[in-house]
Amino acid sequence: MRELSFSVPKEYDGIRLKSFLRSYCGISSRLMIRLKREPMGIARNGQHAIVTEVLKAGDTVCIRIPDDTKLHEPLSVPLAVVYEDSDLLIVDKPSGMPMYPTPGHDCDSLANAAAAYFLSKGERFSFRPVYRLDKDTTGLVVLAKNSYCAAQLAAKIEKEYVAVCEGTLMGEGTIDQPIGLKEGHSIQREVTEKGERAVTHWRALRNGGGYTLVSFRLGTGRTHQIRVHMAHIGHPLAGDDFYGGGLRFLSRQALHCMNIHFIHPVTRREMELSCALPNDIQSLLTLCGMEEYTKTE
Description:
By secondary structure, the chain is an alpha+beta fold. The protein folds into 3 domains: 2-65, Structural Genomics Hypothetical 15.5 Kd Protein In mrcA-pckA Intergenic Region, Chain A; 68-156, Pseudouridine synthase (2-Layer Sandwich); 158-256, Pseudouridine synthase (2-Layer Sandwich), CATH 3.30.2350.10. The chain contains 6 helices and 15 strands. It has helices spanning 17-23, 29-37, 110-120, 147-153, 225-232, 279-287; strands at residues 2-7, 42-44, 47-48, 60-65, 81-84, 88-93, 138-144, 158-166, 172-176, 179-181, 189-191, 199-208, 211-218, 255-263, 270-274. Strand 5 and strand 6 (88-93) form a beta hairpin. The radius of gyration is 22 Å and the shape is elongated.
């Protein structure tokens, strides 16, 4: 059970509790229903409260978020934990690990690994990734430990991806092209007028051996967005044969979520975290005569 407390500021004096929970605390309608069903799920100044009560400045509102019981089958594999507190777990996902169990990966997903991790700690946990990475994309993944934090962080985490692309790119640019499913395919995407708007901001970091190390920031979050956009402009990711990349050095797309930035949903602290490029991408840089890359330039 996670307990969160909020002090009512003077500008919310005279407002109903329900409005305060929604507008100030960011409580979703679904979570509000769950809180109402819990004994002392919503309290005001230490006493059980109903959402029609009128608040006064200085009141303390407390919510008690019930534990979830849904767990995937535990898989005892090491998790590279980058950061953890009472509300968040941030890990460095390896290549070859899908987010959820899929055919052929029934019990070796990140969901399975997280289940085993929390089971070993004696904690109850429901798998709530704030965003997803493709199976062979590596890097930072944020897992929310409760529904409140998951809702607060949705679409609010700034991410920087780093990838090795074929060919030589210089400077920086923006790709604003719609992406949708390729006709006749259920997974593969392409740039198409029938798709949804997709915006990718890119910046070349260094070049060598016919490849370019590129930094990406996304204006939208479409499936396979970086991979599709770079293939569309003639610079597919190294190892990404699904979108035309060669397999000379890598057998998976050279794409890594390296840096994230967000405001912590509970402490309100500014959070900036990073994780190093995996060995296979670092080795590719070396083969191409590029210097080791360890941080944003």
